[in-house]
Amino acid sequence: MTDMKTRPKTGPRPKDPRNPRLTRKQVTFIKEFSKGKTGEAAALASYNTQDPNIARSIASENLTKPNIREAIDKELERQGITIEKAIEPVRLALEANKQTTTIMGNVVDTGVPDVDMRLKGHDRAMKLMGVGREEATTNMFFANNIDIGKEFVK
């Protein structure tokens, strides 16, 4: 008969008294994430790990849990951060015009589209709308093939 070592039983995870549906670590994760940290950085600050891969995994799992997403949304709302406020700079970037400064130091809108700023706004808007890298890569592939095809038609 072999001696089997038994692991000591751990009790239930410590719950946050203000929100019994969340553990203390989850509450800390939510606070750190709501401060603007990435999921990985929030997990590193909240959980007993220094490994970025484990932290990314924890963050990914946490951000799929409905009770954590709900708590993040409530915290952002408490801070006055809404989707409308978050998207407003993107909208402004999509409509940006170049500006110039007069001799008197006044900033004046030239009416000329600021293409660089508009493209940055476009990229951010596409990312917010869920248009990811795969679609961009696929579209670029097809566009390049069409251009190459035209060159051979000459």
Give an account of the 3D structure.
The chain has helices at 24-34, 39-46, 52-62, 66-78, 83-94, 115-128, 133-153; strands at 15-16, 19-23, 97-101, 107-113. It has a two-stranded antiparallel ribbon. It has a two-stranded antiparallel sheet with strand order 3-4. The chain has 154 residues and is α+β, with helices and mostly antiparallel strands. The protein folds into two domains: 15-78, Arc Repressor Mutant, subunit A; 83-153, no CATH class. It is built from seven helices and four strands, in the order ββαααααββαα. Helices cover 58% and strands 12% of the residues.
Q: Helical residue percent? A: 55-70%
Q: Which percent band covers the strand fraction?
A: 5-15%
Q: Which outline best applies?
A: elongated
Give the SSE string: EEHHHHHEEHH
The major beta sheet can be summarized as: 2 strands, antiparallel
- pLDDT average, as an integer? 79
Structural class: alpha+beta
Query: Gap between N and C termini, in Å?
Result: 84 Å
**Count, helices:** 7
Q: How many E strands?
A: 4
Order of neighbouring strands in the sheet with most strands: 1-2
Helices, strands, pairings?
Blueprint: E1 15-16, E2 19-23, H1 24-34, H2 39-46, H3 52-62, H4 66-78, H5 83-94, E3 97-101, E4 107-113, H6 115-128, H7 133-153
Antiparallel strand pairs: 1-2, 3-4
Helix pairs in contact: 1-2, 1-4, 2-3, 5-6
What is the structure about, briefly put?
The chain is of the alpha+beta class and 154 residues long. The chain contains seven helices and four strands, in the order ββαααααββαα.
